[in-house]
Amino acid sequence: MKLLRNLFFAALALVAGLSAAHAADRAEKVVYHITDSANATAALNNIRNHLNASPKAQIVVVAHGAGIDFLLDGAKNKNGNPYDVVVQQLVDTGHVQFRVCNNTLEARKIDKKEVIPEATIVPSGVAEVARLQLQEGYAYLKP
């Protein structure tokens, strides 16, 4: 009986170890949810730090409401630095995508042409966040 129990725990440890090793090899999939552009600089810094720690991570930034403002043409942070430069650098890594809510654009009467080309317009920001989590297995972060 003791031998059987030891074999069971050894097998369990082996399976757990293999699962952990497999998970470590997989790229993280994370959605960053931005609802206020006042948090954009911190969020972009978090994303850079995230990629430094996990270079294989796949990150999607979904913005809606007041969160879209940093993804509009000519947007600058409080120090006067343009956001589009940092956004372009992150997109260029091949690991970060930006998505903007069309419902917000329509509600705020913002022309789609004002959205920087690095961002994709999606029908609904909240629906996109839910879809990424439920259908594609993305972890949720709200900086």
Outline the fold blueprint.
Layout: H1 2-25, E1 29-36, H2 40-53, E2 58-66, H3 83-92, E3 96-101, H4 102-107, E4 119-122, H5 125-136, E5 139-141
Parallel strand pairs: 1-2, 1-5, 2-3, 3-4
Describe what you observe in this structure:
This protein is α/β, with parallel strands linked by helices and 143 residues long. It has a single domain, classed as DsrEFH-like (Hypothetical Protein Ychn, Chain: A), CATH 3.40.1260. Strands 4-3-2-1-5 form a 5-stranded parallel sheet, sandwiched between helices. Helix 3 links the parallel strand 2 and strand 3. The longest helix is centred in the first third of the chain and has 24 residues. The radius of gyration is 20 Å and the shape is globular.
Keywords, please?
single chain; alpha/beta; globular; 143 residues; 5-stranded parallel β-sheet; Hypothetical Protein Ychn, Chain: A; 5 helices
Percent helix, as a range, is 40-55%
The third-level CATH topology is Hypothetical Protein Ychn, Chain: A
Q: What does the largest sheet look like?
A: 5 strands, parallel
User: What's the overall average pLDDT, rounded?
Assistant: 89
The total count of strands amounts to 5
Number of helices: 5
What proportion of the residues form beta strands (DSSP E)?
15-25%
- State the end-to-end distance: 52 Å
The figure for the number of domains is 1
The CATH class turns out to be Alpha Beta
Rg calc: 20 Å
In the sheet with the most strands, the strands line up as 4-3-2-1-5
Q: Uncertain segments of ≥5 residues (pLDDT<50)?
A: 19-23
CATH homologous superfamily caption: DsrEFH-like
What is the general shape?
globular
Output the structural class: alpha/beta
CATH architect. name: 3-Layer(aba) Sandwich
Order of helices and strands: HEHEHEHEHE
